[in-house]
Amino acid sequence: MLHSDAQEDEAVCLLRELQAASASGGPESACELAESFLRRGAAVALLQRLRSGSRATWAVAAAKLLEAMHGLALGRLRDAGWHVAGPGAHAGALRFVHAVTGEEEEDPELPGKLRSWEARLLQSLALLAAPGECDVVYHRPCCGSGILLEKTGCDHRAQQTVIDIVADSEDGHGTSRLRQLHAGVFKGTQEGNHADWDRSRPPDSMVEPWKEVTAAGLALLLVAMEEGGSSTSSSEAAVLVVGVGAGALPSFLGLHADHIRVDVFEPANERVHIAQRYFALAATGAFEQKPRGKPGKASGACKSSRKNRNRVCRRWFGKSLHKGFYKLRAMRCFKELLAAQVLPKLLLKQPRSCQILTDLPLPGAGSSYAAVVVLGSSIATGEALDLPALAKLLTPRGALVLQAEGAVCARSLAGRLSSLWGSGKVTQLTELDLQEDPSDDSTAPQVLVAGPELPTLSTNQWHRYLQAPCAAFRPGVLDLAVAQRTRVIHVPNLLSDSEMAAVKDLARQGQRNEASVEVRSAPTSDAWKVCFLQADGLFESAAAELKEKLTSLARSIGDQQGWWEAAEATPESFNVRVAEYYSQAAPGPGLPDRRHFDMDSLVTVDILLSTPGVDFEGGEFSTLEPSGALLAHSFGRGDAVVFNSHKFHCVGPVTAGRRHVLVVEFWRGPSRRCPHRCRSLQPTCPAEPEVSSRPGLREAARGAALLPFRLASVEEDDEQEEALLGSTPRRLKLLWQVNDMDDDLPQPPTCE
């Protein structure tokens, strides 16, 4: 974007306008004016000028305007009782304390009508403007010639912006670099129509957020059902993606389902260019870039050819080798990957390129799709969506999958889809949100699926078509809603003093193997340590009697309480998944998540090995009941609490002393001997001691076609009466779970 002296004067003029509005109409009048600047795209334009090194005066003018706008947001917070208490966790962030409640927050919520994206963006301007926190990688305004977009005559939906931001890692430890593509006016890093890429992983390794995972999961399920129900068809399974977005969906399908042909209908040259250049989309077709070299051969050695370097660096970092500084930086990254001995693995598995189409294919045998996925960006940009034409491209068992932003958009699309097949052939999907403060359903993303033969969308169906072919076992657990209605059973004096002493001796043996110990309070402290007693078969061999005692207890209570799937007796396969020895010292974090549950396990047994009030204070075990109340369960030394693993539970922080607990989870899978809480549904975990030292067995244990995620839980929406009568679409809530991930998946070195 070109700058001029007029633009420099524009920043100064905008600042004077704010000052005049504040003087004449007060701070709220100035806030409204600042929010109008944001609605006209000022945030990205100012951030871009702030990072510009061409003229210092541009950066100074932009900085002053951003500071003034953020100052108005601080004034609003003061009026609401929030005062600055000090710096926050990130550069530019602030920590606030409420004058009345004493509550501390880094991003306090404003009351009532002030809860808008404009108000939230005003609050975050200081964080975005801090050095290194947000970089504008690409920005093309849709209209206007200066900082502000045109006030009338344009809806600004065609604007495209790519930014790099610093985000907290998913595990809560450290930060990662996140690249985002924003379509339309930039509304903040968590707002508006945007796509994300965590640059600590290859762009095709995983899809996120929920709406992307749901679209990918539905497409894979529809293809699997098509292949499973049509054994006579010799045509290649195909998926059509309408709108390229950031390229995450076609890239993911190209890597994890390379037997599927993926066509992408995208008539806009610029969007394809952005996906290829900034998000490493592998694509062919009308807008194909220069070839990146042929796929690497399956050999143990890795040739350091320019083609291989280009392909690997582009996949990991979104850029090829260039001259000058960028070439030196990419070469350093390539050498670090080579030294880590991970390049052969990267070169062996290359994503299949998608085919870019500038026109929709004509209906016919050569262009029949098991799934047609319409990305939210295509709907948000107001492009004409010819649903009847898309429906004609489906196979007889195919379905349309549409992303919708919010309830209003979802209702509109549901009505149009119902006119094609009837409301009984339309399903509305939202996220099963387990957070304490779930997002507002009216603005939460939704996905709609419609077609002549809809999938039932159950965990059993997902397992049948996508897990069982990979030799994965079925967890067969209670749905979350049912599990919350189960009771916690208190078993007093389960273990004797000698049995508890034997458990502590077992823990001392296990702690000799450093791989069997995990610090769950890291990196802030080592207060909470966990020793995995099942590692290397220690629990099974050295505590066989205790294992049988606990297994019998868990089975019998599960039978009595009916904790198994409907009309099922005790599961034939019922084994120890993990045996954890907890050592929790004060001050410790506890397990604060009130909606925590032990995914994929059937029964959990907690045995207290310390005396409350003597050995420790705090550490209360509680469950979240269906009423929303938190119910504390008191149990003493040697006592046990036995509960359905999918019941929400939490543990309070230990405030004094040290708390020791034995936690044993049982599941349908085989007894594990790996040094962690195993998430693999394969017959053998890749980290089993007899497998981990043999690469060939490790690859077989992972499952050649196992996906990174799976459908974990499905719940009917609370308001389903009309849907069950067929007058409105069926509404479901979906929860996705990460499958066993490759612990050896190489992480790219820093290349910034």
Report on the structure:
InterPro entries: Oxoglu/Fe-dep_dioxygenase_dom, SAM-dependent_MTases_sf. It comes from Polarella glacialis (Dinoflagellate). Residues 573-670 form the Fe2OG dioxygenase domain. This is Fe2OG dioxygenase domain-containing protein. The protein is of the alpha+beta class. Among the domains are: 5-198, no CATH class; 301-350, no CATH class; 480-694, Jelly Rolls (Sandwich), CATH 2.60.120.620. Helices cover 33% and strands 23% of the residues. It has 22 helices and 29 strands. The strands form 5 sheets. It has a 10-stranded mixed beta sheet with strand order 10-11-9-8-12-13-15-14-29-28, with helices on both faces. Strands 16, 17, 18, 19, 21, 22, 25 and 27 form an 8-stranded antiparallel beta sheet that branches. A hairpin with a 5-residue loop joins strand 2 (94-98) and strand 3 (104-105). The two termini are 23 Å apart.
Features:
Oxoglu/Fe-dep_dioxygenase_dom, SAM-dependent_MTases_sf, Jelly Rolls, ten-stranded mixed β-sheet, 752 residues, 29 strands, eight-stranded antiparallel β-sheet, disordered C terminus, alpha+beta, 22 helices, Fe2OG dioxygenase domain-containing protein, 23% strand
Q: Helix and strand layout, with pairings?
A:
Blueprint: H1 5-25, H2 27-39, H3 42-51, H4 56-79, E1 82-87, E2 94-98, E3 104-105, H5 117-129, E4 134-140, E5 160-168, E6 175-183, E7 193-198, H6 210-229, E8 238-242, H7 248-256, E9 261-265, H8 269-279, E10 283-285, H9 306-317, H10 325-339, H11 343-348, E11 354-357, E12 369-374, H12 376-380, H13 387-391, E13 394-405, H14 407-421, E14 426-431, E15 445-450, H15 459-467, H16 480-483, E16 489-491, H17 497-510, E17 517-519, E18 528-532, H18 538-542, H19 544-561, E19 575-585, E20 591-596, E21 603-608, E22 616-618, E23 621-624, E24 630-633, E25 640-644, E26 649-651, E27 654-667, H20 689-692, H21 695-702, E28 709-716, H22 721-724, E29 730-738
Parallel strand pairs: 8-9, 8-12, 9-11, 10-11, 12-13, 14-29
Antiparallel strand pairs: 1-2, 2-3, 4-5, 5-6, 6-7, 13-15, 14-15, 16-25, 17-18, 18-19, 19-27, 20-26, 21-25, 21-27, 22-27, 23-24, 23-26, 28-29
